[in-house]
Amino acid sequence: MPANHAALLLASLGTTWFLTGLIWTIQVDGYPLFASVGREVFAAFEADHTSRITPLVGPVMGAELLLAITLLFDRPTAMPIWLAWVGAAIVGVIWLSTAFVQVPLHDRLGRGFDADAHRSLVATNWIRTIGWTVRAGGLTWVAWRSLVPANP
Description:
Elements: H1 3-33, H2 39-73, H3 81-110, H4 115-147
């Protein structure tokens, strides 16, 4: 595999697996625990959560988006074109879900705890959790195909 394809694949694996691990942590631990924060301090808690998570996840999501687009035009030979398109589509769905579902729910929660907004946040975050998990699996499959000879 050419060095540029190896670097692209490794960078894609790194960003996507980082985001996959982070979203699973948020999905099964972070978001459910929001209900345990006292109502009197919840708005401050939500503001603190948002100010801490955004600089952590934002740049990595941006890098993943650029890498997904790059893979559409310059991909390892072990990656079928359909998988590059599926991967890019998954990243698109994650971005749309984040912008139009999760961010508005966080905005509602920023005004104070809202049980309906919290339930919706936990439920709709599965879109991103499943999306990143599927994308990570696809990239891992490409890496495996790249490392294991087709005809040993």
